[in-house]
Structure formats: C-alpha cells, structure tokens
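Practice record 12: protein with adenosine-5'-triphosphate.
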Amino acid sequence: MRIIDLLTVQGGTPRLRLLGSAVASSIGGVLLLATVNLAAEKMARTGFDQVDWGLAAVFIAAAAIYYYAEVFLVGRVGADLETAIDFMRVRILGRIRRADFVQLERVGQQTLFESVTQATQTISQNSQFIALALRSGILSAAVLLYILYLSPLAFVVVAVGVSVGGWIYARLGARLHRRHQEMMKEEAGLFESLSDLFDGFKEIRLSSRRSADFGLAIAEQFRHVGTVRLDVQTHIFNQFIIGQVIFYFLLAVVVFAIPAYGLGAHIDIVKVATAVIFIIGPLSGLIHSLGILAASNAAAEKILRLDADLAGIEDVIEQVEPRSLPSDFSEIHLSGIRYAYDGAGDDSSFAIGPIDLTIKRGEIIFITGGNGSGKSTLMKVLCGFYRPQNGRIDVDGTAIGSATMRSYREMIAAVYSDFHLFPRLYGISPDRIAEAEPLLRMLEMDKISNLHGNRFNRIDLSTGQKKRLALVVALLEQRPVLVLDEWAADQDPHFRRRFYREILPELRRRGLTVIAVTHDDVYFDAADRRYHLDEGRLNIVPSAAGA
Ligand SMILES: Nc1ncnc2c1ncn2[C@@H]1O[C@H](COP(=O)(O)OP(=O)(O)OP(=O)(O)O)[C@@H](O)[C@H]1O
C-alpha cells in the first residue's frame, strides 16, 4: 500500500503504532460484544433484576480501551500523515529546485501542481479512513473469531456469507469506480472550459456571438457532468442498499436457515445473531473506507512517483563538488555549440549551432533574429540551463562542466522574455537593499513601487513596469554578466530610448557585460557587436551594416 509507504517515508515505526492501536481498539470492541452477550445470558439464567457489577466493570474497561485506542489511532494517523505530507512537500520542492531544467520542463507544471497540492489534499482530508479501514478490518476479523469460538458451523455460514457479500459489493464498487473515473474526466474538461472563460474573458466579452456560443457549449458540458454525477450518486446509493440487504440476508440465514436444518440446538443463535449485527458496523466501515482509501492510495502513488522521478532527474551539477571560477573574468567563449531539442540527431527537432562566440568582459552584445530563429534557446544554453550536445563554454580557458557550472551560473543575472517577478527579494543581503533606491530612480520606478524591507509594495503593474522591477532585482544581484531577452520590447518609446542611450552605457561604465536579445533596429548601434541568428545559425553582422 503506497499510503503506508508514504507514512513510513521518514522512517520510524508508524506501522507498528498503527497496528498496535488498531488491535487494541478491536480487542475493546470484541470485549464489549462478549460482555453484553454474557450479561444477557446471565440475566436470562438468573433473572432480570440481577445486575452483574463485575461484568459492568469489564464493559466500562472495554469501552475505555476502545475509546482511547480509537482516539489515538485516528489522531495518530492524521498527525503521522500530515508530517509525512509536509516532509514530502519540502523534499519535492527541494528536488524541483535542484532538477535538470530540460527534464523538469518535460515533467510539466500541471503534474507538479497536482502532486504538490491536490494529491496531498486528498490524503490529508481522508486520513481518518486509513485508521477506519485498519480498525474495521481487524475488528471484523476479531468478531469472526468470536463467532468461531461460539460455533464453527455458524462461523462457516457467516464467513461464506461475508465473502459472497463482499464479492458482490466489490463488483459493484468496481463499476462505481469506472463511473467515478469518467466523472473526474468530465469534470477536468469542465475545469478547462472554466479556465478558458477566465483566460479568454476579454475575447468573450468582445464578441456577443462567441459569448453566446461559449455559454451554450459550457451549459451543455455542465448538464452532461450533472448527468454523470447523478449516475455516480445512484451507483453509490445502490451499492449501499445492496450492502445492507446482503447483511440482513446473512442475519436471516443465521436465524431461519440454521434452525430450519435442525442445527439451531447446537448453536447459541442469539449470540451469533448479535455478533452478526455487531459485525455490520465494522464491515460497512471497511468497505466504505476501502473506496476512499483507493483514492488516497492513488494520490500517495502520484506523490511518491513524482518524488522518485524528480530524484532521477537531479541536475548533475548538484551531485558533484562545485569548483569556483576566478572572480574576475576576461572572456566567455562558446565554441562549436550545438543544441537540439528532444535529443541530438532528430531531424524534425529544432537545433541551434554550431555556434562560435566570444564575449569579452564589459562588452555589450546584441543578438537579433526572426521569430523562432533560436534566440531564447541560445540564451538558455548560454545560461547553462540547456546542456549542448556538442561544443563547450570556456571562461578564460576553463571549460565549464559539472563542477564549474554552479559558479558559472552565479556570474549571470538575467531577465528572460518569460520572466517572473518575485514579490520578495530572495537571496539578496539586506545591506544591498539600500542600493535599490537609485536603481528604481534610474528605471523611473521610484514613484510607482518601492521596497519595504525586502518586499515590493506593489507588483500589480504593467508588463513593461514589471520588467523594470525585474531589471532592478537583476542589477541588485551584482553579477558581472547581464542577459536580457527582449527586455525593451514592452517599454514605451521614451523609456526604450533611455534604455539604449543612457542605461546601457551606464551599465557598461559599471563594468557589466550585457548580452541582449533585441528587435530594436533603431538602436543596434548601442552594441559593441551584433550577431544575427538565422534558423539556429549565428553570424556576426559587420558593424557598418548593424552597429
Ligand atoms: N521546449 C521546447 N521543445 C521543443 N522545441 C522547442 C522548445 N522550445 C522552443 N522550441 C522550438 O525552438 C525554436 C526556437 O525557439 P526560440 O524560443 O529559441 O525562438 P526565438 O528566436 O526566441 O523566437 P521569438 O523571437 O519568437 O521569441 C522554435 O521553432 C520552437 O518551436
């Protein structure tokens, strides 16, 4: 059971603890049953005005054992599962941070999101059902043993009845499970349509025909999901009723069929019937919780599989002792770099290279090229996210490999075209935060957003404004190399001019090396050199033509 694997992920002995308390709870339960049966039998023999205080004391003790074992069991399972989930979440987040970039892209955000949020939620919401299933299973077995003690024949009858009933119930459950899966699929489709509604709100509002058409389609989807859900509810109800009928039928076998064959004289029918009535509770609990347990188990499987997958795609640079690079560099050299998506040699996949490029310290280099020519891909290779299949990157003659990659990445700050602005500054020491003010002024953001401590007081900004804040953060990192991917594309003409004519020269004065992807042909002269990418091939543009 994957849910139990999840429980034991941190080591310790939760299995034993659970089993111990489930056994204690079951002993308490059977003791309650046996005491009531014994007291009833005694009363029938000695008269109804006689109270056996000894048995009453045993009953209270059994009730206390049952109560405390149950409370411990349910509480403990919940606590153990929450601890395990917290542990797994932190471990998975750590693994995501250390994962190989390309392989993480393949895992996809959806899987990560589902496992870290929805799957963990399913488990923690249903933790009590694990305890219930365990306790109900053991208690049912204990009551069956009690019936065996009362009469081997009654035991056989009840065991066969329970097995047949269980089989019918499980068959119904399998059908229910299939319908449930269908319902989940339909609901996922509905969720997608709702996302369309929010993401495409503007487009929908702009066209009344699209809006009406979309409304009809989504209403139809709602109707369909409603029908499937009703069908699932009917299956659940049917299963419940049939389950109850099976038990009553079992009771009827005990009180009618056994005496009918003249076997009643050898069996204490009343005690067996009481035991059968008693076993209905734990058996229904077991069957009910098994369905929910299956969902928790599937969720645990999802989490554990993601954890294992992420462990398998840990970036190699995390597995080796990092080596530092000299703090001052003179040049970064890319030689014979070739990178192809989806593995080398696949003709259908896009590839860049072979690329030769030398970037000298303090230079401003522009990379230009049409849409899909490979500019962002080159930036990802340059930043060390994509490992080229051929070629190498050198810093002052030192080849960048697994051991030096971390130090190499530490040289680079970047604002990508699909940048993310964190509302908080992470990894920037408090004494550097004071340097943010002049940077915010330089980027004309000081009147719009400021740092309060290490947090921006506003990030509900336009894309161009957010990019300016992202550049502030990149500059606060004080790395020698700055990579900008179409940074100026979202800036207004005034600020675009300021960026190319004032800010870039200022960054050059500060000694930064800037590699910028740009389409702004008016300002190509702001670079020391310009390279043009054409279907993955990089060519220098002679300065007379470009700069
Ligand atoms: N993760 C990926 N897997 C496979 N192919 C990809 C992936 N990302 C990009 N590509 C392909 O690589 C090619 C180059 O993409 P890239 O984003 O580098 O272009 P670009 O020059 O930055 O384009 P744009 O100017 O439109 O931003 C495209 O044809 C794209 O389909």
